[in-house]
Design goal:
single chain, 85 residues, alpha+beta, Muramoyl-pentapeptide Carboxypeptidase, domain 2, three-stranded antiparallel beta sheet, 3 helices, 3 strands, disordered N terminus, binds zinc ion
């Protein structure tokens, strides 16, 4: 699970941008590509993804995210992006 995923706040949408260096160091710690995207491939690095919470908001997010053009990445109920990755 990436560091960004711990940065949940109470706001409905929180943009979390990872620098490439941060993404690389996450990957060094966890090479499971499902958990940490390869450097240069994360939607976070492109600014196209966001992580949101708290968990009690996941239901609302799932229902309402499409209105804002976001798709959920199913393995991560907090992770939304323009592509669903
Ligand atoms: Zn994420």
């Amino acid at each position: 699970m990436g560091i960004s995923h711990y940065l949940h706040t109470d706001s409905a949408f929180t943009y979390v941008l990872n620098s490439n260096a941060q993404q690389q160091s996450l990957r060094n710690k966890n090479s499971n590509p499902k958990m940490v995207a390869k450097p240069g491939t994360s939607q976070h690095e492109k600014g196209d993804a966001l992580d949101s919470g708290p968990p009690s908001a996941y239901g609302w997010l799932k229902k309402n995210a499409p209105r804002f053009g976001f798709k959920n990445y199913p393995p991560e109920p907090w992770h939304y992006s323009t592509t669903g990755h």
